[in-house]
């Protein structure tokens, strides 16, 4: 599956924060590639949404989404390719 820039849509206003945690190992390879390729356009399409990307040693990659009602969702990004990560972002952003 090829990800195009036109598919990077704006997220729901209920989403208040995205955090992408990257580990230093190979399990974060797909997540790191996704961030490098698509973060600029994600931010461009969602200028008021805080999108935090952090790299930590000794952790598995994860995606955290925080919503306006205080609910937080966490998904593993370990060993996923960029298209799978895009699907996860679409799922938490809608």
Automatic annotation (TrEMBL):
InterPro entries, per database record: NADH_Ub_cplx-1_asu_su-2, Ribosomal_mL43/mS25/NADH_DH, Thioredoxin-like_sf
Subcellular compartments: Mitochondrion inner membrane
Record-stated family: Belongs to the complex I NDUFA2 subunit family.
GO cellular component: mitochondrial inner membrane
Domain named Ribosomal protein/NADH dehydrogenase: residues: 23-94
Keywords: Electron transport, Membrane, Mitochondrion, Mitochondrion inner membrane, Respiratory chain, Transport
Pfam families: L51_S25_CI-B8 (PF05047)
Its membrane topology: Peripheral membrane protein
Record function comment: Accessory subunit of the mitochondrial membrane respiratory chain NADH dehydrogenase (Complex I), that is believed not to be involved in catalysis. Complex I functions in the transfer of electrons from NADH to the respiratory chain. The immediate electron acceptor for the enzyme is believed to be ubiquinone.
Origin species: Drosophila gunungcola
Protein name: NADH dehydrogenase [ubiquinone] 1 alpha subcomplex subunit 2
